[in-house]
Design brief:
Length: 358
């Protein structure tokens, strides 16, 4: 029997087993066609049904109003950094710089026009979310990154903003309720919470487009993909299929609201142990701690035990707890499909290690 593993990878994410099982079946026979989903034409009624269902699940699970549309794209969230500026930056935009990905998004915008960091937490290695900054009402948009995977910080509420608000929600989408009406655009990669790598979601306020004077290349124009129902070019078929199955699983357990309560319990269980355990210490400011990415290091004076704990945890089936290479330490990613049982196993491992080293 294979050893039980507990997956805390920061991405690609742990997916629900039922989505994986259905994907395996679809690899052999998609929707009774006798054709693998890898070989199905995207111009068939069977594939249209998947696209329609997936869009409908997004709208249902996040209560997306009719003012917004959902599109699926390729290219990764990093390409969306350019999409955002191409479609929305006319005079000036501001970015909340809360980490590597926010900073990269700002850099892409600066290649298109005037964009600046309205606030930044780099002074403390991005371990907190800046607060109290003033947002000019005449901005084309304010861009935020709601969850910062590398540093374990998260914006937990939907801010009121006097200008258009755009959010990269790659790593916390579908983990908590979101008031979509407050955003002109929400985008992100699926591979943290809602599917495998290879597909991007974008939730777009339809009347927010068409306001820039520049020429927008056809492929980089959000209106192209809204008009063509995400099939202007061949979509990432398999990734969308698995995303659809993942969203069906999420709906089946009660939806985003139920998932949010589960996620809060998972995070509290691990953070409580970090705060209690004499071997470890959390790195993010407590009020800004992420529910998705729990970052911690060895406690002062215990640093030499880091490699020993990695080996100890690996022996007990913990996978993916190494911190990002730029910050070190540990990171446990508690995305939707990560269970409370997985988190409890990590907590038990930490307790056992502490008892051995006392």
């Amino acid at each position: 029997m294979a050893k039980k593993v507990h997956v805390f990878n920061a991405g690609p994410c742990l997916l629900p087993q039922v989505a994986i099982d259905h994907a395996i079946e679809a690899l052999k026979d998609f929707s009774g066609t006798g054709i693998s989903v890898l070989s199905i034409s995207h111009r068939t009624k069977e594939w249209d049904a998947v696209m329609d269902e997936c869009r409908a699940l997004w709208k249902e699970l996040l209560h997306i109003p009719d003012t917004h549309e959902v599109v699926f794209l390729g290219g990764g969230a990093s390409l969306q950094f350019l999409y955002v500026a191409m479609n929305y930056l006319e005079k000036k935009a501001a970015y909340l710089d809360t980490g590597v990905w926010a900073h990269k998004a700002l850099k892409e915008a600066q290649g298109i026009g005037e964009a600046y960091a309205i606030a930044c937490s780099k002074d403390k290695n991005y371990t907190y979310i800046p607060k109290g900054f003033e947002i000019p009402a005449d901005l084309d948009y304010l861009h935020i990154t709601t969850n910062n995977t590398i540093y374990g910080t998260e914006i937990h509420t939907d801010m009121d903003c006097p200008c258009p608000l755009i959010a990269d929600m790659s790593s916390d989408i579908m983990s908590r309720p979101v008031d979509v009406s407050k955003y002109d655009l929400i985008y992100g990669g699926a591979q943290k919470n809602v599917g495998p790598a290879g597909v991007i979601f974008a939730i777009i306020r339809k009347d927010s487009l068409g306001r820039v004077s520049r020429y927008i290349p056809t492929m980089l124009d959000y209106r192209t993909h809204i008009d063509k129902l995400s099939m202007f070019n061949t979509p990432p078929v398999f990734a969308i299929y698995v995303m659809n199955e993942t969203l069906k699983w999420l709906k089946g357990i009660g939806g985003v609201e139920v998932m949010y309560e589960i996620n809060k319990k998972k995070a509290a269980l691990l953070y409580d142990e970090i705060d209690r355990n004499s071997m470890f210490i959390g790195t993010a400011e407590k009020e800004d701690r992420s529910l998705m990415n729990v970052c911690f290091v060895m406690a002062p004076g215990k640093e030499e035990l880091q490699d020993e704990f990695f080996a100890f945890a690996k022996e007990r089936g913990m996978v993916g707890i190494k911190g990002h290479r730029s910050v070190g330490g540990f990171r446990a990613s508690l995305y939707n499909a990560c269970s409370i049982e997985d988190v409890q196993a990590l907590v038990d491992c930490m307790k056992e290690f502490e008892n051995l080293k006392k």
